[in-house]
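dumping this here so i dont lose it
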């Protein structure tokens, strides 16, 4: 799954930043990184989870570590993770705004990109359910009789190698699949929607760029906190006296183009289903064929 791979890559990308550049807080921060990306993953899969809330919760949890280990090194001994001081820092983060505009910008970018990715993922799941349902379409008695006559009646005359004529095959299968053919227009509208969502994911709301940008947003936020450390005053409220990774970045344009090509190819799937079936191994391009009653010239 491409989306989940991008999430995993982005999570590793951010973890490497914390471990390499902000080692003093990385061990305590990594669980919050895991929680953030777990929430993003669940959102992509359709869970009722707010991306904005997940991002702000991540920075809320990050602030006590940043304040006691980066802004005021050596203060980490003032209390554990469950102390009143840490809880106070966590709750005052959005009022103090120690990370500047970066949390809000990151939340906005991810919400737009993951929103498009979520809609595309849910649409694909619905399409899969429709396709699975068509596998269990019941055939009428007339259809079964027609299929048996087309495939096996020639065997009764000892003609085991002869194949049905193309026109005959089409007539039989179009009759059998008449109800399925009614799905053609809804299917075309569905594939058009998939195309629009795919362009949204790959274009203005690029999911790949948004996820790969998480590392940069967090880094900028931490640098902002360090730079403006002397201005961050929570003492009265709370009672308080990078190395670049060498991994190859994933790219999705090729995957996107391939997916769009498949959509174009199968846009007329239900309307062309009889033709596709009759082009299979049951029909061959010989000079003679089985008409349902006799061997005839093509």
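and the seq i came up w/
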């Amino acid at each position: 799954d491409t989306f989940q791979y991008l999430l995993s890559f982005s999570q590793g990308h951010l973890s490497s930043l914390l471990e390499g550049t902000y080692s003093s807080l990385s061990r305590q921060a990594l669980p919050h990184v895991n929680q953030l990306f777990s929430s993003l993953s669940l959102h992509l899969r359709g869970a009722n989870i707010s991306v904005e809330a997940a991002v702000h919760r991540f920075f809320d949890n990050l602030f006590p570590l940043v304040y006691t280990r980066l802004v005021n090194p050596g203060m980490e001994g003032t209390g554990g993770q469950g102390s009143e001081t840490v809880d106070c820092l966590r709750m005052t983060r959005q009022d103090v705004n120690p990370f500047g505009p970066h949390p809000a910008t990151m939340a906005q970018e991810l919400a737009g990109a993951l929103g498009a990715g979520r809609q595309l993922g849910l649409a694909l799941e619905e399409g899969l359910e429709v396709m699975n349902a068509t596998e269990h379409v019941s055939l009428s008695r007339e259809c079964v009789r027609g299929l048996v006559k087309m495939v096996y009646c020639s065997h009764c005359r000892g003609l085991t190698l002869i194949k049905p004529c193309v026109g005959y095959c089409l007539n039989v299968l179009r009759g059998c699949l008449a109800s399925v053919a009614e799905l053609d227009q809804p299917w075309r509208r569905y594939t058009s929607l998939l195309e629009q969502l795919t362009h949204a994911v790959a274009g203005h709301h690029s999911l790949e760029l948004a996820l790969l940008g998480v590392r940069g947003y967090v880094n900028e936020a931490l640098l902002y906190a360090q730079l403006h450390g002397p201005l961050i005053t929570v003492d009265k409220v709370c009672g308080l006296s990078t190395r670049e990774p060498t991994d190859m970045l994933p790219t999705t344009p090729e995957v996107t183009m391939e997916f769009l090509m498949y959509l174009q190819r199968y846009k007329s799937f239900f309307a062309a289903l009889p033709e596709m079936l009759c082009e299979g191994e049951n029909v061959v391009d010989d000079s003679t064929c089985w008409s349902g009653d006799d061997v005839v010239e093509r």
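The first helix runs from residue 2 to 21.
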